[in-house]
Amino acid sequence: MKTALIIGGGITGMTALYQLTKFAPDWNILLAEKSKQLGGKIRTIRNGSFIMEAGADSIVARNEGVLPLIKELDLLDELVYNETGVSYIYAENQLHKIPEETVFGIPASIEALQESTLISESGKKEALKDFDKAENPFGPDDSAGDFLTYYLGKEIVEKQIAPVLSGVYSGKLSNLTMKSTLPFLLDYKNKYGSIIKGFSENKKTFFGEQARKKFVSFRNGLDTLIERLAEKSPGAQIFTETSAVRIQQTNNRYTVFFAEREPVEADYVVLAVPHDAAQKILGASALEVHFNKLKNTSLTSVYLGFSVPDACLPADGTGFIAAENSDLFCDACTWTSRKWTHTSPDRNLLVRLFYKSTNPHYKMLEPMNEEQLIKTALSDIEKSLGITQNPQTANVTQWKNLMPNYHLQHGQAVSSLTETVEKTHPNLFLAGCSYFGVGIGACIQNGKKTAFTILQNGNITVKE
Ligand SMILES: Cc1cc2nc3c(=O)[nH]c(=O)nc-3n(C[C@H](O)[C@H](O)[C@H](O)COP(=O)(O)OP(=O)(O)OC[C@H]3O[C@@H](n4cnc5c(N)ncnc54)[C@H](O)[C@@H]3O)c2cc1C
User: Fold this and answer.
1) Is the CB of 273 under 6 A from ligand 1?
2) Which of 38, 116, 132, 179 could cross-link 140 (Cys pair, CB 3.0–4.6 Å)?
3) What is the pTM of this model?
């Protein structure tokens, strides 16, 4: 009987576990997770009637494999969709509406460009040059910042696009590739000669009914998915509070040592842990140079729940992004009770503030304790929204060095790392958000793909 051991109980590891137990019920399948609870960056906290997602808050529904898995797990009835609404950019001490017909702040029509209150007339004129520059000297590995600035001009990129895109992809726009952000814009430029025209011609994709139902969660919180994956993997042994510390390789089998329990011998090992944890566990000098090229950033999430109705918010909408030079410390603020109504059934105000290490203010926040971080968040709320009440509840979650940063050399670094691992450690697999995509959809795909490779190596034919 074969033994497969998964290290790391985030969404990647849990998906791999589910697929392995489904197709190889006779194998010995184990999962070891360092923390008390499974889920990793999916962590739901319930406090009073509030539901707070301390990590990821939702899944992009259209990502391949997401809805089929949710259906297979009998969770379709539990699904909730985000409310759509206006988003704002907080700049010069006020909220500026991001025009509705924009995608990541990029106008999808000339009207949407004209509507912006953030861009000057000369900035708008500059952006219209996109229609005259049909040539495309850019490729997938070029910087998204360079691409957008070349066609749309500096002002709109700095004031309206970079705040949105950098927020979504956790990094400076100049350091993000087209491939990892907006690869389809290269096609738009080639096909339509203009980015704005490309969006105009594809409005259905971005603004139709389907696009409105873009993000999904579950009525009782995102960790419903993790719980269900565990329930539907009945033959597996799951160990929490079990931290892998070392791996020893003997004749293409592995012995994995843990801090808290006896070692496990396995034919297949999946390291579904952050890259620096995998690097430590493997301790292989041949891999160091490749691992060292991967980078992380940090993020602090602060929730504030109030005992006042969210009608006290100063505007309709779902939240704001702070401009780089604003008077706030935060990078963004989601009006959670508006965006996700299931998180506050009484419709009391729940907001979430994000503080990123890519922001120069972060240095000042680093030494702060929870109380000081909550005070900072309250001050940001007062400045931006004029709300001065004391919160009924608060939650601070720090993701220190746990946000993968897909810089320009990321793809190359992952290829050379995985090629080397394949040679030096057969039947051992690196998996998860550090390498193959940070979104939960990408992690689900990667967990499944990893399990299928193991099944194939173990001569099990998978019939879906
Ligand atoms: C604040 C925040 C907001 C996000 N928002 C979204 C969002 O809205 N939508 C979206 O799609 N994505 C979002 N993401 C990204 C997404 O949540 C993650 O990329 C994804 O959940 C990562 O899953 P994973 O299984 O690859 O890794 P992780 O969730 O990091 O799981 C790795 C697991 O390995 C465990 N581990 C580490 N070391 C060891 C060891 N030595 N032994 C055993 N176990 C170990 C960890 O405890 C952890 O449980 C967000 C992430 C964060 C932090």
Assistant:
1) yes
2) 179
3) 0.93
